[in-house]
Records
---
Amino acid sequence: MTARPTRRVRSGVGDIRLRRLLLQLAVVLVTVAAGVYLFGNVQRNLQQLGITPGFDFLRHPASFAIGESSIPYQATDPYGRAFLAGLVNTLRVAVLGVVLATAVGVVAGLARLSANGLVRLLASLYVELTRNTPLLLQLFFWYGAIVYTLPPASQALALPGSVFLMNRGLVLPAPRPGPGFPTAVAILGLALVAAVTAYRILLRKRLEEGRETRPGLVALGLLAAGGLAAVILPAGPALVLERPQLARFNFQGGLMLSAEFTALLLALVIYTGAFIAEVVRGGVLAVPRGQWEAARSLGLSPFLVQRLVVFPQALRIIVPPLTSQYLNLIKNSSLAMAVAFPDLLNVSSTIVNQTGRTLEMLLLVGATYLAFSLLTSLLMNLYNRSLRRGVA
């Protein structure tokens, strides 16, 4: 048996490891030098303008109103609270957008694989038409469709369930906490803890003993029992539904979704949903045909084939590109400026116009979007890891 020839290691500059180390060191030095130069240049420019960098201005009165805020806000509040109001508005759009775009994308992706030709054609038209036109154009379309084609508040379209649609937006019944709300929350919390504990115990038994323990079914049963108890046991109703009523010029009560918010949400959901549909379709098609045929040979219905065999395997392929679509949706929410929705970027622009603190606000806005993106990536990576371990 001949010994495998070993690679000759040179000393000095001929050593490849030393060359790589020197190259990385040079890149770090160049990056640091560029950063120091840019920082010094910005500092000199600010000194010439008579501006001292700092965030003290966030405590000064904002003196401007925000048309739509999810938290209590007045014009006399400081700039810091105005920034917080914009941040909460962005979070509201991003969270709702991610949930709704996922639902639209999954349905459209599965529809593109349907055996029904009409369903497949309609899904293909939706995907191709939506993802090949600019998002900003779609945003203007939805905003114009809401503002210019819908009737005023006095002639609002009444939809089932005390829902009204008008040119100012969408008005919905709003749930408010009732007398039994604290008790119901405590019961639901206990049910959630019991469900998670039971799920983990039964899942471990299934993995260790190899017998079916149905952890998901038991956890769902505990949650359903907790939900039923939260309705029956409290002394009063946990939630009271506040229905909107038409006043003199506008609706009072309920939950008002402005035309700007509705248009932005519609545009983001429909646009991102088209990309998610393609991600879902690609993930499902990547499952080997043998898995489909084996599941059908067991006599499973098409629904059970998808739920038990195809989709669990496709999820491992779907999750990484799905994360990218979520990040795109969060960043695309900054287009809210186009329809004057007071999101994070819009409010920050107003603050910059009033204070001249461009650098500070750019840093704050950039750090906020970076935090949103990193948190989303972290959560999706944890979910992807759990999928690969087979415990999700």
---
Amino acid sequence: MYIYDQYDQRIVDERVSQFRQQTRRYLAGELNEAEFLPLRLQNGLYVQRLAPMLRIAVPYGLLNSRQLRKLAHITRHYDKGYAHVSTRQNIQLNWPQLEEVPDILAELASVQMHAIQTSGNCIRNTTTDQFAGVAADEREDPRPWCEIIRQWSTLHPEFAFLPRKFKIAVCASEQDRAAIHAHDIGLEILANDQGEHGFRVLAGGGLGRTPVIGSVVCEWLEKRHLLTYLEAILRVYNQHGRRDNKFKARIKILVKAMGIEQFRAAVEREWESLRDGPSTLTEQEIARAQSFFTAPDYAAVDGGASARELRTRCEAEPIFGNWVRRNTAAHRVPGYQAVTISLKATGFAPGDVTDTQLELLANLADQFSFGELRTTHQQNMVLADVRQTDLYALWQRLQAAGLATPNIGYLTDVICCPGGDYCSLANAKSIPVAEAIQARFEDLDYLYDLGPIELNISGCMNACGHHHIGHIGILGVDKKGAEFYQVSLGGSQSREAAIGKILGPSFSQQDMPEVIDKILGTYVDLRREEETFLQTYNRVGIDPFKERVYARTH
């Protein structure tokens, strides 16, 4: 992973010192609310319903065990003993005291972490595939490119005050595990006919009030031009994006207003003055970024023998075998697998992890995965480099800590924003809906029979829970002061990305488990052999689901 040099550390340390003084002046009444607002946002601090919320940056989701232990310490001493993994792969604290936030930032700086650009109208954390660097279907490791973008975009003066927040995702695998089509800019690393790698560039995607799937701006971009091309897109957006209405300020609105052809032409014109300029990436600079993501010291393993041993163990202990089948993924190195740790146990808020669990995960990362762990945009965690012969011992440790729920990719692996329990923007609570659905569908055999289903829940139109691209999406809405929930079907964050269609009138919170049950029952009745929920929906459309769900309630 990337290691700070002296300049990085000095910048982060100086930022902590600056914010300490700004906070002191605010608490002393020397700065008013409006004056303090941009200062706190530049340091990841929001005002929420019950307390401030601090969003901590986790570049492309990668953490080392030292950072995990520090996060455990911070949640224990400055918060209520747990942290929350966000859909931007960041970590959020829900209960810090404002006067202690400078101390938290100082603690973070001591392990090369910060909260810079986790809020505000700037380029946010660049995200990627949680299996980056180890995925069997990957063309190349996208993390060096995320790091190049991070270094370019952090505190970039030209892009510090964009019309709205700006999100970039990079993916280099056959499957899109970074939801690049739902980002302001999505980058896909592809190979051309000569086997050379370059970028397919999408722009204008995004969720929120007006959900849009991104459009292709450039089918093929040489790697050395990445930053100059990104700069051209950002400049067009910065110049022409609307600033008079925050709901129409995202780049997706600009692309839609201009049309993709005109937008592309504007970017190309802007690029003419940037192409081959100082921001063009040299081979040395690319190699420098790649040097931070070299392969760990993998053991030389007889992959065939290791796999046979694992199969034997799985057959001997079916519960373990079930976890291996659901929660581990293929690895490019023989004898290894990537492990997804579910933060979706029934009865717990999706994405929450306690201080003791964080410390356990740090120990497990040291013991089983070269001291590193990743967060996922689906609010889970990943140990990416686990030997197959260590999986059983790892599973036992995770099971004892309540972290071995074998539900990755199934209905109860819910993406869920903090909602009205914490967020001041939310119209409705999300977590109780997620917990009620998890409790209703706790039968794993039924979940496995249903097959892969993505259920995403947001408490408001900002769509932090990505409800638009869930196979089943739930959106909390406010109706004359009462909370209701709108359901959409058919969304997808895959390569065939799609925005879900609204089923019909909304439901009360108590109705939601029954509504989901009727949707699932319709799918089971209509599916053909081996057909997934999304395939059935795409074949039959929304009407059969609508008829079943509203047959008795309306």
